[in-house]
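pinned: reference chain
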Amino acid sequence: MQAVVVAIPFAILGAALDEDFFEDWGWLVGPVLWLACSVITGRILALPTAYVLFSAVAGGVAGLLVMLATSHLPGLLAALLVFAASCGSYDPRLAEQTAEPAAD
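pinned: its structure tokens
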């Protein structure tokens, strides 16, 4: 889901803007769009926003590390995989159990 949601604005921006824009502003636009797309993905999947943002940051950090070691595409793939693994591990039953006050 995240791959599709991320691909749409990046395709639009890629078609509308030249490469110089991304060389100058990609470091800012990329992470902002990643977080915004993550929130959209979380809404589609009915996940808590804080959990999704945590997953997005974890994916972003992993993607950045891979990108620095290799290139942009493997970094994006790593970010998507970490984001998916993190969001996929969400269990609403556990969230409900931790939200209930402890009985005396």
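why pinned: The two ends are 43 Å apart (CA to CA). The first helix runs from residue 2 to 16.
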